[in-house]
Predict the structure.
Amino acid sequence: MDSGACLLSLLVALSTVSHIRSEPILRLPSEKAISSDYCDSWRLAVETNNAGAWERVPVNCVNFVAEYMTGGRYRRDCDVVGNLSLAFARSVRLVGDGRDAWVFDIDETLLSNVPYYEETGFGFEIFNETSFNNWVNLAAAPALPANLILYNELKELGFRIFLLTGRSEYQRNATEANLLLSGYRNWERLILRRSSDQGKSATIYKSEKREELESEGYRIRGSSGDQWSDLWGYAVAERSFKLPNPMYYIP
């Protein structure tokens, strides 16, 4: 083959490759129009924070999320996280001075708001602060069984328990009542947002509160939450454990 023919063949090949590469290998649906076939993958992206900030569950995934949250799979996933948390806690050598701490979030960590979200589309409806506050005032959220077990085991091991929630100070009475009715006892401190904390992202607010605990001499050995913003930031725990939650995102 002469040089002209070789050049022509090369140009044809490059043109073919260019044409192929111009077509996407896989067309993933947008968040607003996710096929139900992708809902489990969407949930994985949410849990790993690959989905980034999002406002509500895609319409085609509402039934998937409802089935996940009310079926045995959510319970089993929480059990796995609880068991891993407990295994770590048992491996910690406590100093014995009462300063080894574990920090818990409350909503979707110690208490489950699934009964509320059953009435509001499992995260499809945009969050309504008024209706959620009315739900909080009922003090009717059940305990998450895995973390109730973990909570009680941590107390037996000698950890000091701190509850760090995004709920506001005016909800203290309802929150304490709900915790007690659900089986939680003898926490060291319940930390809620004060007026000076309003407007802060959860990451900043919770980091500040953890830093305050550290300044008091506490060693935050473990932390449990359903949002990455419960766990990230600074003054983080020695080990953090995230519970599943495909219903909402809090930055």
Q: What stands out?
A: The radius of gyration is 24 Å. The first helix runs from residue 3 to 21. Residues 3-30 have pLDDT under 50 and may be disordered. The longest strand covers residues 160-168.
